[in-house]
Amino acid sequence: MNRDRSWMNHNGIQDRRKTAYKLGVDDFLQFAFKEISNETPLKCPCLKCRLLLAQNRKDMQCHLLVYGIDSSYNLWVSHGENDEQYDNSDEADTEGTEEVEETEMPFDDMAPLISDAKNAWNSTSSVLDDNDNTTDYGSSGGNNEYPKELMTLVEDMEAELYPGCTTYKRLEFIISLLHNKVSNKWTDKSFTMLLKSLHRAFNYDKHFPANDNQAKKYTRALGLDYVKIDACINHCILYRKEFANEEKCPKCQAPRWKENVVHGGDEYSDDEDVDVQKTTRVPQLILRHFPLIPRLQRMFISSKLTRHMRWHKVDNKDDGIMRHPADSEAWKSLDTIFPEFAKDARNVRLGLSSDGFNPGANMSSRYNIWPVMLVPYNLPPWMCMKSDNMILSLLIPGPKSPGNDIDVFLQPLIDELKELWESGVKTFDAHSKETFNMRAVLLWTINDFPAYANLSG
């Protein structure tokens, strides 16, 4: 039976409220649960679960109506449709196989994203060549390896996993493994052992990662890396800039390092026979900084997302009803005071939020971590508050709360915000195919009162 799948191509909450979509959801649920109890958990194909989590019929219906179904899930192989496909003719059999291959690839957006990034670099390079300008694009402090890493991704995106492989490209397979590692909480050691076993079993070439560290280079090339910054155990300073080479805190004289840690050979090294004891200096406290500028630049590399970054000015309707922060008096006041900033709709408006929590949901734990989150409000309301588009900027470690010393840990973020406000950074717009000077402003902070007091000093 050929079912109508047109209802799956929804675009936002408006489409999901239509009768055709609701009837399509009912048809899918009736097919999925036709031979089992409604309370039996099945893989949920909504945009939140993405076939990784299981739900009963009632919860799955709620997810599909609220979050929407994954439009790439055309052949319902996780709900029994694969068996029906093989009962058809040879021609239908071939078509079904091709669809299975497409649905089993959860990273269909990877190719267009990297393609956009490649085009962004090529277009920017030609612009700089035409202007006889040697300024580095997207360097954000001189990261000249960006184009080299990007071209490596492009090569891996097009390279076969092994000669004759039709199901995976090299990049897709590596990203798939990293995705499985995170989803199933594999340790670095177990992931390295898996990669080495794959190397031995399939005789992969030298370009395939042999250990966890090499695989993580792909996340760094995608702009998903972070910077470790040593901090004083008493929250006095960060060991950066003028304090980068200090061995003790110049304010409280606390040592920068713990006692030297002696351990065996590097279990993630390429040399399997290495068994030499090494002495490592371990910092007392480490701040993790996720650079903001490359993450904002990456939002404009995707042509689809770039269009949404103009929504607040191009598509937002000013009808006297507050549906988005762009309708607020604070937003309008900023536009009035700084018209040059408001002229370009691509300039980013940010909100900041921070608070402490106990990791592992253990309320009796005395360990306290403070994440600092940023929200880009340029996006439409159904996107800007989604976790996919929120930006983790800092991860302030414990065991104790930073308190009023939180300003010490905010220094890297403040430096980036100053650069984005005062001078901006060159960024390529994949939608209009042009380079522009991206600026950003911090509109407000959102906290409970204790955290608000700390952020206010």
Q: What spatial order of strands do you see in the largest sheet?
A: 3-6-9-8-7-12
| Structural Rg | 25 Å
User: What is the percent of helical residues?
Assistant: 25-40%
Q: Which term fits the overall shape? A: globular
Largest sheet: 6 strands, mixed
- Number of separate structural domains: 4
Give your account of this protein's structure.
This protein has 457 residues and is of the alpha+beta class. It folds into four domains: 6-103, no CATH class; 110-221, no CATH class; 229-289, no CATH class; 291-455, no CATH class. Helix content is 39%, strand content 12%. It is built from 19 helices and twelve strands. A six-stranded mixed beta sheet has the order 3-6-9-8-7-12, with helices on one face. Helix 2 (19-32) runs antiparallel to helix 3 (57-66) and helix 6 packs across helix 7 (146-158).
Question: TL;DR of this structure?
Answer:
The protein is an alpha+beta fold and 457 residues long.
